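sorry for the late reply, my laptop died twice this morning and i had to redo everyting from scratch. anyway the thing you sent over, i finally got around to it. pasting the sequence first so we're on the same page, its 209 residues, then the predicted structure underneath. double check i copied it right bc i was rushing
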Amino acid sequence: MFTGIVEELGEIVAVENLGDASRFLVSGPVVTEGAKHGDSIAVNGVCLTVVDTEDGRFSADVMAETLNRSSLGALAVGSRVNLERPMALGGRLGGHLVQGHVDGTGTIVEREPSEHWEIVKVSLPAELSRYVVEKGSITVDGISLTVVDAGPDYFTVSLIPTTLDLTTLGVKQAGDPVNLEVDVLAKYVERLLGKDGRPLDATDEETLA
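ok and here's the structure:
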């Protein structure tokens, strides 16, 4: 489980094509400190398993399913990535509960700079729009953000200078893809109540199975 508070802006050092998967070598001395084989590290919001670590770098295998369903398939040598280690039990929940399971991808639509912050508009897959509400939480490339405006196929977020300086959202431009993870609590509520707002009964459960 993660919190969406990026610890480090890392870099893709190498990408090895494994046929039905890819192996990424990622530079990230902060998140690599103390990491070992089998540990989890979120890369642009995707929970990956560490294969090996050495000299401030870690390698991780990414299956075709993940490459196809996230923006990781677009990464290349030199790409900057947001990195976060899992939250320690008893640690502070600085952002919100983030699983590292990407629900879909969006695209940066436009950026509107201001004196002290920047408004970024992101396209939203239609099937995810029901989980996104004004002032609710959403994860964009592994960053816990508060929704400013929620439309049928987009949402906007307001980025402070710290976010712009320390994450990939400081450099991504219109047309760039981003990973999206909606608030898991919204999905649990929908599951419990049913999409039409009424509690599920046995017939509903059989239909969903």
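The chain has five helices and twelve strands.
thats about all i looked at so far, will dig more tmrw
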